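BUG-240 | component: ligand-complex export | severity: low

The export step for GLP jobs runs without errors, but we want the raw record kept on the ticket for reference. Input record follows.
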Amino acid sequence: MKIVIARSEEEFGKLAFAEIKEIVYRDPACTLGLATGSTPIPLYKEMVKDHQENGTSYAKVKTFNLDEYVGLPKEHPESYISFMTRNLFSHVDIDMKNVNIPNGLASDIPAECARYSALLEKASVDVQVLGIGGNGHIAFNEPNTPFDSKTHQVFLTQKTITDNARFFDSVDQVPKSALTMGIGEIMKAKKLLMLATGKNKADAVYNMIKGPVTTACPASALQNHPDVVVILDQAAAAKL
Ligand code: GLP
């Protein structure tokens, strides 16, 4: 596991982008695993800037997002498809046919999970971007999710609902459920790029890196992956 500590938000974005750039430059038809949340925004800003300044093309890139809320209309500003469109997809030349996000509006949720798992089974994700929840969750895999899990529906913990309430008008508006890629599918990516910032992540980051490998901290599964890069700011790294 390579651990890098950035000294500013700008440096954080540049360090994260350097990992993605290497892969996109090597293989313009690569497959990127993408994440939502406030943490990867500096990375997406660097991707957009590089696309505008250097013309790096995403026309052949395929993407898989980690998760999506259940029941939130696609056009709701906090749906993960809206987030991705606003922060990345609408600013680069990606072909939306190559974009994959679980459909949280599917009428048959188990069938939708099976569809997404089947797509991931065939895919070969070159790098999966990850954030971490304050309770150590990755994507929406809450504590005690089995490490071999596949795409499934989750009912969010009260901590995650409270943490994510900042994006909504009130805590009551946060969806109670989501579809998430499973930990087993995340771990299949060739490389994992874990991003974490802020002091509210310091305990989870410590448990991910220095704690025991246990389902109590889903991110501790990363200790079992052969190619992980962790990029932190100083606050998130404070307890290491
Ligand atoms: C959310 C997402 C995760 C994300 C995490 C941290 O609930 N499902 O994929 O990594 O919480 O979000 P943030 O980066 O906003 O702190």
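Assignee comment: Attached the raw record above. Residues 29 and 61 are 5 Å apart (CA to CA).
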